Amino acid sequence: MASSGGISDQLFVSVKLESPWLAELDLDPHLFGSHPVAGSWDPCKALPLERAAAAVWDLSCVVPSQHQPLDFKFILKQKNDSSQCIVEEGPNRSLGCQSNEVEMRTAVFKLNEGKDVLECKVQVETEMLSPFDLAASWRAHQEYVQPSMVRGAHDITINTGLEGRAKGATGGHAPSLEEQRAMFVDRGVGSPNFARPTKETFSVSNFKLDSEAKQDMPAAEGAVAAAAVADQMYGPKEDRKLTIVLVGLPARGKTFTAAKLTRYLRWLGHETKHFNVGKYRRLKHGTNQTADFFRGDNREGVEARNEVAALAMEDMLSWMQEGGQVGIFDATNSTRIRRNMLMKMAEGKCKIIFLETICNDKDVLERNIRLKVQQSPDYAEQTDFEAGVQDFKERLTYYEKVYEPVEEGSYIKMIDMVSGKGGQLQINDISGYLPGRIVFFLVNCHLTPRPILLTRHGESMDNVRGRIGGDSSLSESGQLYSRKLASFVEKRLKSERTASIWTSTLQRTILTAHPIIGFPKIQWRALDEINAGVCDGMTYDEIKKSKPEEYESRRKDKLRYRYPRGESYLDVIQRLEPVIIELERQRAPVVVIAHQAVLRALYAYFADKPLEEVPNIEIPLHTIIEIQMGVAGVQEKRYKLMDAVHPTAGL
């Protein structure tokens, strides 16, 4: 297969080996095989697998797509004596040229002169990468941004069949391993380490980033950063800045959509700012404008509104010159003349995408109009609510007379998507990573009111010991909380039979959810606690004494600090994006039982907290945070079910 420039696509290979016994036996897994890179069957030159989690080791590399079949096997070496090798039993494994495949097999090793047998789960995954994808990923890796390669494998486990068995159980009873992790497949979320290129792997040394492109690099990590680099390397200069121009009649949810999109992009790490033209109008002309001000035949009114729109656009372009990446321009922008003015101002400075919101549901419109009059500063001094509603409807009539739907340029049309009855999303001339993510986000958004309950797992044994990470069970206090949580959920959601319970794949969250009956339970690997890497299972005092440099680096920049062989908070945010998209898509209540670092990141999204604040957000044990999603925005309540014995425990 040929790619642009005549350069062949490359095959990304990810190999994972899983066993809880390797660490206890002090065995390090390696891979060796027929290719010189894999040691040419010389055990001394075997490639080591890197520990990615408590019981998972992985190795990833890139090879030419048209390579000869490669034979390989796994080999185990003693940590203190690498000369002692245990070779995998059975025939050689073969890596062909197939792309986008996942192979699940078992590796068998004979220990103690064949008296004992050790079985390890093996996953070999391949995916074809274009030179552009590879260039972006390798560049990000060289800049110390470890890219996360998210694959198409399953990343959740849905377990709806445990309720009958759970009815008589207590919080201290652990479900079997088969019950806890049935059907689970590691999705590959993490930071794969690309093998250093050899003469047979694709080299990206000829690709250069100019200084301006480096400055425009967003704070987002992993796949987000890699795709952003690719867009910057191969896209026009003005495409590095993006303006989303809202279009639509009043009361169509433009400001709601703008605020939600701003919050999402900020959370991903993109410098994003919401420019509301209505605020500029009120600052310049006051809040006491009647409906006549918005008449299409009121020349003074039209000129005044165009003037404040131009002021807002100039401010946005100035902000972009200072480092801003995405501007959300919020106004009706209902005529071609207005939109042409904006496109002319942005020419050569940023890319414009029009986002038009259309709603034909009379019930939704009536609700939005009344909510608008209730909340808008334009009617803050209006004592007669119904008179305010009438004035707003008159204003709306004037806009309808001159309204011209978007037919020019790049655009996204959201048609009747807020009513909860389906709707359409139309797009025209949309390309690039970030515009694509925006479309995917918007197609999953709606205004259906529903609560999202966030809570940490009950206190674990590692919480009691002050150790981070791990996969320990619950303490007595944690078991008590699991029962209190079950009682709370059953009362709070007794009329919400379509609600669901989400947990991580770690047993402390699974055990916390165990007493809850009557709701489906879903396990997400993406909800697992931040990976502490080599520090997993240690106390902070132990880290300070044995790894003082790591301790100090984390103290200085907790957001960007990445544990050796582990994750940073920015990594966690990137892997949580599918969870956020699914939470936005859900129309029923969801209870999320997860971990401190993960819940900090999720809460920061809903509360629109700056990224710098994420590592220090307070998420106490044994407390429920209820997020109410709906047309009025995001509202929060907290319920403290019991005191935490060790309130400071956690990452």
From TrEMBL:
A Pfam short name: 6PF2K
Domain of life: Eukaryota
One GO BP: fructose metabolic process
InterPro entries: 6Pfruct_kin, 6Phosfructo_kin, Carb-bd-like_fold, CBM20, His_Pase_superF_clade-1, His_PPase_superfam, Ig-like_fold, P-loop_NTPase
Binding site for substrate: 456-463, 508
Gene3D superfamilies associated with the record: Immunoglobulins, P-loop containing nucleotide triphosphate hydrolases, Phosphoglycerate mutase-like
Domain CBM20, chain residue ranges per copy: 5-113
Xref: PROSITE patterns: CBM20, PG_MUTASE
Keyword annotations: ATP-binding, Nucleotide-binding
Gene Ontology MF term list: 6-phosphofructo-2-kinase activity; ATP binding; starch binding
Record-given protein name: CBM20 domain-containing protein
